[in-house]
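Limitations

Structures in this collection are predictions, not experimental determinations, and the ligand pose is part of the prediction. Treat each record accordingly. The example that follows, with 4AD as the small molecule, is included so readers can see exactly what is and is not provided: the inputs are given verbatim, and the output is the predicted complex.
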Amino acid sequence: MPTYIEDIAQYEGQAVTLRGWLANRRSSGKIHFLQIRDGSGFIQAVMSKGVVGDTRFAEAGHLSQETSLTVDGTVRADSRAPGGYELDVTSITVVGTSHEYPITPKEHGPDFLLDRRHLWIRSARQQAVLRVRHEVIDAVRDYFNSRGFVLADTPIFTPAACEGTTTLFPVQYFEDATVYLTQSGQLYNEANAMALGRVYSFGPTFRAEKSKTRRHLTEFWMVEPEMAYADLDDVIALAEGLVASVVARVLDRRGRELGTLGRDTSALARIRTPFARVTYDEAAERLKARGLPFEWGGDFGSPDETALSEMFDGPVAVTGFPSAIKAFYFKPEDGRPEVSRSVDILAPEGYGEIIGGGQRLDDYDQLLQRIEAHHLPREAFEWYLDLRRFGSVPHGGFGMGIERVVAWICGLEHLREAIPFPRMLYRVTP
Ligand code: 4AD
Ligand code: MG
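Predicted complex:
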């Protein structure tokens, strides 16, 4: 039976074999301190000359970083050890050697590390981020699965643009159609919702923005719920519940990882629903009052979002964006068509937008007008118009970017650390 470091507490006083890699080594005259990692955790293995003999002790003195090895030893409780336990080594077997591992415990620059992302993910910090990511995704799935939502997948090759035509990746392959990588599963989610009621999609989405900000990836993962018979308030309530439950779950189960990241979790622990709400109109006024050069009708830039999210203690739901800056599919406000039934949820601590969504235009004639006004090719949207021809109902949903949420919860500077292999304008390797 293999033993994993995360389960080590069950083996106190027992002989075990760990299978892993050497993360670090310090030596004093008669003792080697070997930092062992096995993917599930880290533990200090203590090898003393008196126990293993001179030859084996000397051999271990040449083990280099990231050598893969199996370690036999006895588990000993130690209150000073980070995980509460150490291993007293009886023997070591090398599985694979490692020469001049490039990522040493010293500081490296971001480009150096990103060029070696395939190795960088072995470090304690990066492992912690990726485990939080796993927990976020698991919590998202549980949230929807326990509320009657059906996971219905949406295609990645799509003939129609969902989020505007300027940020599309064309794919040259299909004979009769111009096809793009999907920006969002939403349009298909709407069809799925008319079939299944409450649905969600979860998958990679693509944006060809020429953006180099720390909040943009060209390939990111988005969860998108969609509900039939729902209005904007239903959408906001669903979004708030999701964010609160994801945060609570990570705090509950990933305290060790957040500790590794040095994350101050007090602001996360204060999050309660309902979130603060502000209309776009009010937000525009507040930004101007703060001295930011913001005019009604414009979209929030990163500095605006940061300023807004700093005005509230927890996440804030901004509603009613101008129709002119939003996608074609939003339902306009009754009696105020220049305003859309849209919502963005901004994360606190200056992290900005993590969720975008709203209520969809359910009227056939108005939708057709919007498709034409946006110069979208009508043929590609005929099937979407069918949803308004055959039993249209009020409906809505949203998209939440997984990396934005992970970056916020982990307190990361940049989205690129929130996914194993980031894809950005200037980086597609490794
Ligand atoms: O606000 P967005 O563009 O909304 C949509 O795509 C809707 N069709 C979703 C829906 O209603 N079903 O994107 C939704 C979220 C953003 O709030 C953000 O968290 C994330 O997706 N996102 C990005 N994350 C990383 N890099 C990018 N370039 C992103 N663009 C959007
Ligand atoms: Mg948005």
